[in-house]
Design goal:
The complex is a heterodimer of chains A (320) and B (260). Chain A is mostly helical. Chain A has helices at residues 4-19, 25-49, 58-74, 80-102, 107-127, 153-179, 186-191, 193-198, 203-229, 239-252, 257-277, 282-296, 302-319, and strands at residues 137-138, 231-232. Helix content of chain A is 74%, strand content 1%. The chains are: A mainly alpha (320), B alpha/beta (260). Chain A binds chain B through residues 177, 179-185, 187-188, 190-192, 194-202, 205-206, 209, and chain B through 51, 73-74, 77-78, 82-83, 85, 89-94, 102-103, 105-107, 109-111, 113, 115-122, 162-163, 165.
Amino acid sequence: MIPRSLSIGALAFIVVAIAGPFFPAWLISLATVAFANALVVLGLIILWRSGLVPFGQALYYAIGAYTVALIGRYSGVHDIFFMVVVAALLAALTAYLTGLLLARYREIFFAMLSLAMSMILYGILVKTETLGSTDGFHVEAPRWLGYAPAAGWMRRAILFWTVLAFDGAAALLVSLYFRSIAGSLAAAMRDNEIRLEFLGISVNRLIHLNLVIAGTLAGIGGALAAFAVEHVDPDMSYWTTSGGFVFVTVLAGSGSVAAAFAGSFVFELLKSIAYDLLPGTWQMFLGAALLLTILFLPEGLGSLLLRHRRTLKAIRAAGR
Amino acid sequence: MNAILTARDLEKAFGSLVAARDINVVVPPLQTVGIIGANGAGKTTFVNMITGHLRPSKGSIHFEDRDITGLPSRMITRLGITLSFQVAQIFPSLTVFDNMCAATAIARAGGGLLATALTPLHAPDTLAEAEAALELFRIAQYRNLLAATLPQGVRKLLDIAMAVAGSPRLLLLDEPTSGISIEEKFGLMDVVMSALKARRITVLFVEHDMDIVERYADRVLAFYDGAVIADGDPVETLENPRIQELISGPKLKTEAARRA
């Protein structure tokens, strides 16, 4: 039997994929970036469930972005799938290496150490002239298995669909992971590490695995965002970028996979509205939004979905 | 029959303090061994060396002819030795059933990282095994309660049920009745011991209550100052005046006699 959440998710996915390209150009671009960033948020949800909040996820995001930018600029290879896979592998490798240290820490120490690591990359990017220093550099348009659509509607639509394809695959795999033993031990990890160790599970290794999964997702997200924005710069690795991802994770909540995508889209939309309305003080608008979320939806946007599901169940039960 | 556990010349020193010395114990399969001794006598040090929590300074430990001296505790768990804690170690924010499912699923997957990442938690076999374990330990009625809300005795039973998920061959019980009221103690131990017998598990249990030791142990190990000073039949050992003087105390014994 196919779970209900999966069929609803698949339906939403198809509707967005078909309707998406017919919206105005600015909205497609916004959605493309939002859905690329949603992959980072998906990774953060995995970590957040076990009680870890990294403030340095931009490290893997920037590595993904700079990887595709550099390959396009220097290697002569322009295939988007190849470039994204290389970006994912590099981000995974980085996450594996940083994870050797990070997996031993918890709570605020974990958060601060992850932040410190991302700021090392920021320092390197800012100081390196060949990488464009603080200005960054332009990202060349990719090709799709040899096909190079002209700039404009076609390229926008194909990139949008590509991002959606990666999103769909990631959402499916992460949902499967949440149903596995390792993926469903998050609450147990928060509760009691000693018990898990004596059941034969290494909590540090499990966290390490989650870090690599989250880092890989962030790398793919960064690579796709780089194609959408057509530019990379060191701000992609700055701690405010990491903070933004945590913001969206709080907005989305850790309850469901779909919330990562909805949350990321709402965040980008809010940000762009705030830019328009309050060019000087747009952060205040976002801050107020976060405050309202925490006050009235402490479990995030995802809880609206869950609450709806619970109400439906209650109505059905009452009907019987 | 071959021994399930063999400790030879076991010693543990912390700097100049010798917490356990000259421990030579051979446990045959399916025996229930009570471990007694005053605080600091070396009981827990002995147990911790078997589970791999502490590395012995000297000597060796064999589990079913396999040398497990100094192996990490996760390896030892996977080989078939598990531990139930003095203070119940459960997952308070999960239901009783989900606690049991987690323990069962991990034991079935073998604890390997890749296996746990690729096996679904709610496999039909796992669910059935978890249900059966709750029945066996008589806590099925608490199935859907959050573990945080359980009374002390039920927590203890859940902790032990989780420790023996996946059927280990040897279980170490650290003070199974600590924190349990006198009225509940025997009832709890009856459930635990009959469940462990049904699963054919060899048991070593640390206990301060001599009535419990006398009733449930086939054999008693008495620790004093890091060494085993008596090893034998529970009734004889507990009547030994030296043991009474050093460990159990005559007063406790007369009280027990009066009640009997």
